[in-house]
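Spend some time on this chain, tokens included, and walk me through the fold:

. . .
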Amino acid sequence: MKTLAAILVEQRKPLVLDEVEIPALSYGQVLVKVLVSRICGSQLGEIDGAKGPDKYLPHLLGHEGTGVVLEIGPEVSKVKVGDRVVLHWRPGAGIQARPTLYRLGHKTINAGNITTFQNLAVISENRVTSVPLDTDPEIGALLADTLTTGFGAVIRNAEVTIGESVVVIGVGGIGLGTVLGAKLAGAHPIIAVDVHDHKLAKATEYGATHAINSLQENLADTVQRILGNTADVVLTSQEIRP
């Protein structure tokens, strides 16, 4: 069985569309029909060679999306055939399977534990999570990275606790996930910072208690005035641009 896939063959070059041979499922692997895939800055960085030469070329890309489980491999127990699933790069529940290898003629195409720039994908069980069947695939793809990256920064990295003050610099997609995570963690106050008023308004809807347009106010002075001190936690999504 084959699937159409977008392959990174050479850095700083367009992806190549071709049909790759899908391997038989091994321990802990899941075959998924990809409904929606998103792309983020890290994927663009891979294509552009932002971190230097890529030793895994040629390889497939994509680590956030929504799909439907078509087949499960040995010992898979967290999902079943027919499940709608979010496809995510952060490890979740289930088996950490070995990286997937596809074939294109005589060439091996690397794929790692998850790729989504294709119609059908073999993914490690711990990179798929079941969601309700009526979940909008576009929303599912947001849950895969954009929102959960923000949540992870709050819960796993900063380990925000109840009553801590949090400043979120940059409230685009990831930043909004950070604001939501801070709210659920019980942070207070939650200060959203951006250069776009419409983003600040949305952050307020999502749980920010204060909003600062850093083009119009001095950030440090305004935070000091709101808190009477420095913030307990400052998180930036690197999305803030004039």
User: Anything to note?
Assistant: The chain has a mean pLDDT of 93. The chain is about 25% helix and 30% strand. Residues 39 and 163 are 35 Å apart (CA to CA).
